[in-house]
Amino acid sequence: MATVSVLNMEGKEVGTMELNDAIFGAKINEHLVHLAVVQQLANNRQGTQKAKTRSEVRGGGRKPWRQKGTGHARQGSIRAPQWKGGGVVFAPVPRDYSFKMNKKEKRAALKSALTSRVQEEKFIVLDDLKLDEIKTKKFVQVMKNLNVDKALVVMKEKDVNVIQSAKNIPNVKTTLTSTINVYDILKYKTVVITKSAVENIEEVYV
Prior knowledge:
Strand content: 15-25%
Distance between the termini: 14 Å
Strand order of the largest sheet: 2-1-3-6-4-5
Order of helices and strands: EEHHHEHEHEHEH
Number of helices: 7
Protein backbone atom coordinates (compact mmCIF):
# COMPACT_ATOMS: atom_id res chain seq x y z
CA MET A 1 0.00 0.00 0.00
CA ALA A 2 1.15 3.52 -0.82
CA THR A 3 1.59 5.81 2.15
CA VAL A 4 0.94 9.55 1.87
CA SER A 5 1.37 12.39 4.32
CA VAL A 6 -1.72 13.93 5.89
CA LEU A 7 -1.49 17.72 6.07
CA ASN A 8 -3.49 20.32 7.94
CA MET A 9 -4.76 23.60 6.47
CA GLU A 10 -1.47 25.29 7.40
CA GLY A 11 0.39 22.85 5.17
CA LYS A 12 2.08 21.03 8.05
CA GLU A 13 2.24 17.25 8.27
CA VAL A 14 0.06 15.87 11.04
CA GLY A 15 0.25 12.16 10.20
CA THR A 16 0.29 9.57 7.44
CA MET A 17 -2.33 7.49 5.68
CA GLU A 18 -2.17 4.22 3.79
CA LEU A 19 -4.02 4.17 0.48
CA ASN A 20 -5.81 1.09 -0.79
CA ASP A 21 -3.91 -0.34 -3.78
CA ALA A 22 -7.16 -1.56 -5.32
CA ILE A 23 -8.02 2.09 -6.04
CA PHE A 24 -4.89 4.21 -5.66
CA GLY A 25 -2.44 1.58 -6.92
CA ALA A 26 -4.42 0.12 -9.79
CA LYS A 27 -3.03 -0.71 -13.21
CA ILE A 28 -3.40 2.37 -15.42
CA ASN A 29 -5.56 1.75 -18.48
CA GLU A 30 -4.99 4.72 -20.80
CA HIS A 31 -7.63 3.57 -23.28
CA LEU A 32 -10.40 3.61 -20.68
CA VAL A 33 -9.20 6.95 -19.32
CA HIS A 34 -9.37 8.43 -22.81
CA LEU A 35 -12.80 6.89 -23.39
CA ALA A 36 -14.11 8.33 -20.11
CA VAL A 37 -12.92 11.83 -21.02
CA VAL A 38 -14.42 11.63 -24.52
CA GLN A 39 -17.70 10.36 -23.06
CA GLN A 40 -17.98 13.23 -20.58
CA LEU A 41 -17.22 15.87 -23.22
CA ALA A 42 -19.66 14.25 -25.66
CA ASN A 43 -22.40 14.02 -23.03
CA ASN A 44 -21.96 17.73 -22.25
CA ARG A 45 -22.57 18.76 -25.86
CA GLN A 46 -25.93 20.42 -26.42
CA GLY A 47 -26.29 19.11 -29.96
CA THR A 48 -28.70 21.92 -30.88
CA GLN A 49 -26.94 23.12 -34.06
CA LYS A 50 -29.38 23.46 -36.94
CA ALA A 51 -29.33 24.75 -40.52
CA LYS A 52 -32.00 24.49 -43.21
CA THR A 53 -31.77 22.28 -46.25
CA ARG A 54 -33.22 23.42 -49.60
CA SER A 55 -36.51 21.74 -48.72
CA GLU A 56 -36.86 23.91 -45.58
CA VAL A 57 -35.83 27.33 -46.93
CA ARG A 58 -38.70 29.65 -47.74
CA GLY A 59 -39.37 30.69 -51.36
CA GLY A 60 -38.08 29.41 -54.68
CA GLY A 61 -41.34 27.87 -55.79
CA ARG A 62 -40.97 28.79 -59.43
CA LYS A 63 -38.15 28.47 -61.92
CA PRO A 64 -36.01 31.67 -61.99
CA TRP A 65 -35.93 31.73 -65.80
CA ARG A 66 -36.80 29.47 -68.66
CA GLN A 67 -34.67 26.43 -69.34
CA LYS A 68 -33.16 27.53 -72.66
CA GLY A 69 -32.36 30.63 -74.63
CA THR A 70 -31.28 33.07 -71.89
CA GLY A 71 -27.55 32.41 -71.95
CA HIS A 72 -27.61 31.59 -68.26
CA ALA A 73 -26.98 28.19 -66.78
CA ARG A 74 -30.20 26.30 -66.17
CA GLN A 75 -31.68 26.80 -62.71
CA GLY A 76 -34.60 25.15 -61.00
CA SER A 77 -34.95 27.24 -57.83
CA ILE A 78 -33.43 30.31 -56.19
CA ARG A 79 -33.22 28.27 -52.97
CA ALA A 80 -30.76 25.72 -54.37
CA PRO A 81 -27.48 25.47 -52.39
CA GLN A 82 -25.43 27.48 -54.92
CA TRP A 83 -27.71 30.52 -54.52
CA LYS A 84 -27.27 33.20 -51.86
CA GLY A 85 -29.94 32.53 -49.24
CA GLY A 86 -30.33 28.98 -50.46
CA GLY A 87 -30.36 25.79 -48.41
CA VAL A 88 -27.30 24.08 -46.95
CA VAL A 89 -26.04 20.80 -48.38
CA PHE A 90 -26.05 18.07 -45.69
CA ALA A 91 -27.17 20.65 -43.10
CA PRO A 92 -26.51 19.85 -39.41
CA VAL A 93 -29.59 18.89 -37.41
CA PRO A 94 -30.17 18.56 -33.64
CA ARG A 95 -28.70 15.30 -32.37
CA ASP A 96 -27.62 13.53 -29.22
CA TYR A 97 -23.85 13.00 -29.02
CA SER A 98 -23.91 11.05 -25.75
CA PHE A 99 -22.88 7.43 -25.43
CA LYS A 100 -22.64 4.98 -22.57
CA MET A 101 -19.78 3.24 -20.80
CA ASN A 102 -20.09 0.09 -18.74
CA LYS A 103 -20.02 0.56 -14.98
CA LYS A 104 -16.83 -1.53 -14.65
CA GLU A 105 -15.14 0.55 -17.36
CA LYS A 106 -16.06 3.79 -15.57
CA ARG A 107 -14.66 2.50 -12.29
CA ALA A 108 -11.46 1.28 -13.93
CA ALA A 109 -10.97 4.66 -15.62
CA LEU A 110 -11.49 6.52 -12.33
CA LYS A 111 -9.06 4.25 -10.50
CA SER A 112 -6.50 4.77 -13.28
CA ALA A 113 -6.82 8.56 -13.01
CA LEU A 114 -6.49 8.53 -9.21
CA THR A 115 -3.51 6.18 -9.39
CA SER A 116 -1.75 8.45 -11.89
CA ARG A 117 -2.11 11.43 -9.53
CA VAL A 118 -0.71 9.41 -6.61
CA GLN A 119 2.25 8.19 -8.70
CA GLU A 120 2.98 11.74 -9.86
CA GLU A 121 2.87 12.93 -6.22
CA LYS A 122 0.06 15.33 -7.05
CA PHE A 123 -2.30 13.89 -4.48
CA ILE A 124 -2.60 15.87 -1.23
CA VAL A 125 -4.59 14.54 1.72
CA LEU A 126 -5.95 17.02 4.27
CA ASP A 127 -6.97 15.99 7.77
CA ASP A 128 -9.93 18.36 7.47
CA LEU A 129 -11.13 21.35 5.45
CA LYS A 130 -13.37 23.74 7.34
CA LEU A 131 -13.90 27.50 7.13
CA ASP A 132 -15.85 29.44 9.75
CA GLU A 133 -17.11 31.91 7.13
CA ILE A 134 -17.38 32.44 3.38
CA LYS A 135 -14.09 34.16 2.64
CA THR A 136 -12.19 33.72 -0.63
CA LYS A 137 -9.05 35.20 0.93
CA LYS A 138 -8.93 32.42 3.54
CA PHE A 139 -9.29 29.70 0.93
CA VAL A 140 -6.54 31.28 -1.18
CA GLN A 141 -4.30 31.18 1.88
CA VAL A 142 -4.99 27.46 2.35
CA MET A 143 -3.97 26.83 -1.28
CA LYS A 144 -0.76 28.85 -0.72
CA ASN A 145 0.00 26.85 2.43
CA LEU A 146 -0.29 23.66 0.37
CA ASN A 147 1.77 25.21 -2.45
CA VAL A 148 -1.00 24.50 -4.95
CA ASP A 149 -2.34 26.74 -7.72
CA LYS A 150 -4.49 24.57 -10.00
CA ALA A 151 -6.42 22.07 -7.90
CA LEU A 152 -9.46 19.84 -7.69
CA VAL A 153 -10.71 19.93 -4.10
CA VAL A 154 -12.61 16.78 -3.14
CA MET A 155 -14.82 16.57 -0.05
CA LYS A 156 -17.08 13.87 1.35
CA GLU A 157 -19.96 16.17 2.25
CA LYS A 158 -21.17 19.51 0.97
CA ASP A 159 -19.70 22.47 2.85
CA VAL A 160 -21.23 25.78 1.73
CA ASN A 161 -18.46 27.91 3.25
CA VAL A 162 -15.73 26.03 1.39
CA ILE A 163 -17.63 25.82 -1.91
CA GLN A 164 -18.58 29.51 -1.96
CA SER A 165 -15.09 30.60 -0.85
CA ALA A 166 -13.50 28.70 -3.74
CA LYS A 167 -16.13 29.69 -6.31
CA ASN A 168 -14.36 32.80 -7.65
CA ILE A 169 -10.84 31.37 -7.66
CA PRO A 170 -9.65 30.56 -11.18
CA ASN A 171 -8.18 27.07 -11.69
CA VAL A 172 -9.80 25.70 -8.51
CA LYS A 173 -12.87 23.48 -8.45
CA THR A 174 -14.65 21.84 -5.54
CA THR A 175 -16.45 18.53 -5.88
CA LEU A 176 -17.84 15.70 -3.80
CA THR A 177 -16.83 12.03 -3.79
CA SER A 178 -20.24 11.23 -5.30
CA THR A 179 -19.59 13.48 -8.34
CA ILE A 180 -15.85 13.00 -8.87
CA ASN A 181 -14.93 12.22 -12.46
CA VAL A 182 -11.93 11.38 -14.66
CA TYR A 183 -12.03 14.60 -16.69
CA ASP A 184 -11.69 16.87 -13.65
CA ILE A 185 -8.95 14.72 -12.10
CA LEU A 186 -6.86 15.06 -15.26
CA LYS A 187 -7.75 18.71 -15.94
CA TYR A 188 -6.41 20.02 -12.64
CA LYS A 189 -2.75 19.63 -11.72
CA THR A 190 -3.31 18.51 -8.15
CA VAL A 191 -6.00 16.61 -6.29
CA VAL A 192 -6.55 18.03 -2.80
CA ILE A 193 -8.76 15.62 -0.88
CA THR A 194 -9.89 15.32 2.70
CA LYS A 195 -9.09 12.22 4.72
CA SER A 196 -12.80 11.40 5.12
CA ALA A 197 -13.26 11.66 1.34
CA VAL A 198 -10.44 9.14 0.76
CA GLU A 199 -12.08 6.72 3.19
CA ASN A 200 -15.44 7.22 1.47
CA ILE A 201 -13.95 6.49 -1.97
CA GLU A 202 -12.32 3.31 -0.61
CA GLU A 203 -15.66 2.18 0.82
CA VAL A 204 -17.56 2.79 -2.42
CA TYR A 205 -15.10 1.62 -5.08
CA VAL A 206 -13.34 -1.36 -3.50
